[in-house]
Design goal:
The complex is a heterodimer of chains A (349) and B (343). Chain A is 70% helix and 1% strand. Chain A is an all-alpha fold and 349 residues long. Chain A is globular, with a radius of gyration of 20 Å. The chains are: A mainly alpha (349), B mainly alpha (343). At the A-B interface, helix 6, helix 12 and helix 14 of A face helix 7, helix 12 and helix 14 of B.
């Protein structure tokens, strides 16, 4: 779980500055991938295009989770809190105050980052680690869920429906249901999140956060303000996951407390990173590409089951069973995830 | 389980309190019961009850809340005992605990549909869950022993996802219920409690007592406590730690199974019912001190009360909210649990 990424290994034996090429290579890869993906929604049939959007939402959530739990080493089991804050802030501002979702997204990022900083400060101040830290993050996201379910302020269990506009609009992020624009917005947001995570990890702050993860006492001993950089990682992480929440509402046009703050949301933020590779830039992306379509495959299977499974027709749950099995297999056999394992093999040559 | 003549010797050093925390087992004062702390906690509980009376202004409401809270608290205690046992011995935060409980709920439902009395289902659900525990530990978790905590957490998470959604897949999301023959309201002072609730409480206490005796008075229990205190040392005196790990995990899941059958007449049976109990059990475990079996039972009673009284303090909010508030306070202020000296 706590592997140092090969690219960032300090190769400064002679005191030379850190080699910059690997990071620039990451940025180049992001740029190339983004350009290649732009025509995707024009090629794919509409059903597949919506799967692609879901993959990008997964990726955004998980890139956020990875920043705090992978690079920062603080295992969060409550990223639903930040996803939900992003979703509800956007929806609340839009429905109750007719504010553009772009501004709602920014507001959600700020509130989520503030909330993460508060939780992080308390958790670090009282030295919660490992299981206790994970349980504390879980408790906060569940408290938000329970509060949202029973508060008139956010419409209780009913949640929010985004009002449909007569026209399509970039300012209100509302297009025809099958419009490729949704994909492009999600792609843009994901590319920004990836660039931010590359820039964070290569920066001084990111290196300090990783040093604090690998050996907190040693990091503190050489004068790194551990608390500050851990909080920074948490705030950034929360802000990115909040973006995923805000976009989710605009795409699915609906949010309620379980969709926003449920523990399955936290799991959806964790799974892609674990499957792809924790504490790697590309892990969350690869994990999302694996996970996103699974849902559709199993749903199709259950709609028209083979004769032996006739009795399961119309049931749900198979997709999550597959996620669960995949999770166990990956953790047992490929603890570094798909991307992490491949990279390890590669660098050994 | 094991054939070491030295086991008794190990036991001699391990105080009388059924705690699985290594430091406390070794400490010579482990036998001492923290009376002062218990007195403080009791005073706080009394204060909470008085405040609830002031808030609601109705004696019946408070008596009802206290009775319901204590009764369900006993069941929480039993569930948490299994969870804390697993944590103390295997160092695993078992996110699948609630899903084992859900499995037992559906098993009980199935057996009562077949005409069995709900409580006779215990004779099936407990051994079945024990067996499943052995299989899961040996088949899946054994491969991750000694790995970072996150790995085990993720694996148990995967197990819970599989069990919960397999139940959803096969039984659907329709809520089901189990009726206890001859169930009726029993008056307690001004309040009324269902007979099934009282029986669940009594059954949970009996099983918790049996588990305590097993840990304290048998060779197996001694071996379990020895592994919890120092697994290398236990191995050196000839205890087969692999067997102990499997048996301990299975005992934990059997607790969840027993609790599942006991609460079957009280709850709506859905695939997600287990996760609610799981959340509460985590709170109870932290409250009682991770690895502290007696603490788990006491913590169960406290959380049962907190849940019910919280409904009075925060009307209109879910009772679980007050459980989480207690949880967060305990995590921050006494992460070592209520009953343990600070490190």
């Amino acid at each position: 779980m706590t592997t140092t990424t090969a690219a960032s290994a300090p190769e400064t034996a002679a005191g030379k500055p850190l080699p910059r090429l690997p990071w620039n290579r990451h940025l180049l890869a992001i740029a190339v991938l983004a350009v290649l993906l732009v025509p995707l929604p024009l090629i794919l049939p509409p059903a597949q295009a919506s799967v692609a959007v879901r993959v990008l939402i997964f990726a955004l959530m998980s890139i956020g989770w990875n920043m705090m739990s992978g690079f920062g080493g603080m295992f969060s089991f409550g990223h639903a809190a930040y996803f939900g804050i992003g979703a509800y802030t956007g929806a609340w501002l839009l429905v109750e105050h007719q504010v553009s979702p772009w501004i709602g997204m920014l507001a959600g990022m700020v509130i989520a980052a503030a909330f993460a900083t508060l939780i992080g400060f308390l958790a670090l101040r009282y030295k919660l680690r490992g299981a206790y830290f994970a349980l504390a993050t879980f408790a906060f996201s569940e408290m938000l869920r329970l509060w949202a379910t029973n508060s008139d302020f956010v419409n209780r269990a009913v949640g929010y429906h985004v009002p449909l506009r007569p026209d399509t609009s970039w300012w209100w992020i509302q297009f025809e249901p099958t419009s490729p624009n949704y994909f492009w917005v999600a792609l843009g947001l994901t590319v920004i999140a990836l660039v931010v995570s590359v820039q964070f990890v290569r920066s001084r702050a990111g290196q300090f956060a990783k040093a604090a993860r690998d050996d907190e006492d040693a990091a503190a001993a050489i004068g790194i303000p551990v608390m500050r950089y851990k909080l920074l990682a948490m705030a950034l992480s929360a802000a990115i996951t909040a973006v995923a929440g805000a976009f989710y509402v605009q795409y699915f046009l609906f949010i309620d407390p379980d969709l926003a703050f449920g523990s399955s949301v936290s799991i959806q933020a964790i799974l892609p990173a674990v499957i792809g590779g924790v504490a790697t830039i590309w892990g969350p992306v690869i994990g999302s590409v694996v996970m996103g379509p699974l849902n559709d495959v199993t749903a199709t299977l259950l709609r028209n089951p083979p004769p032996a499974l006739e009795f399961l027709q119309g049931r749900s749950g198979l997709d999550v069973i597959v996620y669960g099995a995949l999770l166990i297999v990956i953790v047992l056999l490929l603890p570094k995830g798909i991307y992490g394992t491949i990279r390890q093999r590669w660098s050994r040559r | 389980m094991t054939s070491s003549p030295d086991q008794g010797h190990v036991a001699a050093g391990t105080g009388g309190v059924a705690t699985l925390d290594p430091d406390e087992v070794r400490a010579p004062t482990a036998r001492a019961v923290p009376w002062l702390r218990i007195a403080v906690i009791a005073a706080l509980i009394v204060l909470a009850v008085v405040l609830a009376y002031v808030r609601s202004g109705s004696g019946v409401v408070v008596v009802q809340a206290v009775a319901t809270g204590i009764l369900i608290g006993g069941v929480y205690g039993l569930i948490a005992m299994g969870l804390t046992l697993i944590f103390g011995v295997l160092d695993i935060v078992n996110f699948a605990h609630g899903s084992f409980l859900a499995l037992a709920l559906f098993l009980t439902f199935g057996l009562t549909q077949a005409g069995l009395h709900p409580y006779l289902a215990l004779a099936v659900s407990v051994p079945a869950m024990f067996l499943l525990g052995v299989l899961v530990q040996r088949g899946i978790l054994a491969g991750a022993m000694g790995k970072p905590l996150e790995n085990q957490l993720l694996i148990t998470l995967g197990i819970s996802l599989i069990i919960e959604n397999a139940l959803l897949l096969f039984f659907g999301a329709n809520p089901r219920s189990v009726a206890l023959p001859g169930d009726r309201g029993v008056p307690i002072f001004d309040a009324v409690a269902n007979l099934s609730r009282i029986l669940a409480f009594v059954g949970a206490l009996i099983l918790a007592g049996l588990l305590y005796l097993l840990l304290q008075r048998t060779r197996l229990g001694t071996a379990i406590r020895a592994v919890a205190a120092n697994d290398t040392g236990a191995q050196l005196v000839g205890i087969d730690t692999r067997v102990i790990y499997a048996v301990t995990f299975a005992l934990g899941t059997a607790c969840a199974g027993a609790a599942g059958t006991l609460v079957a007449p009280l709850v709506t049976i859905e695939p997600t019912t287990g996760s609610l109990f799981n959340i509460v059990a985590f709170v109870v475990v932290v409250l009682g001190g991770m690895g502290n079996v007696v603490g788990a039972l006491a913590g169960g009673l406290i959380i049962g009360l907190a849940e019910q009284l919280g409904g009075i303090y925060l009307p209109g909010q879910s009772p679980l909210l007050s459980v989480f508030i207690v949880f967060v306070l305990v995590l921050f202020l006494r992460p070592q649990g209520l009953f343990r000296r600070s490190a």
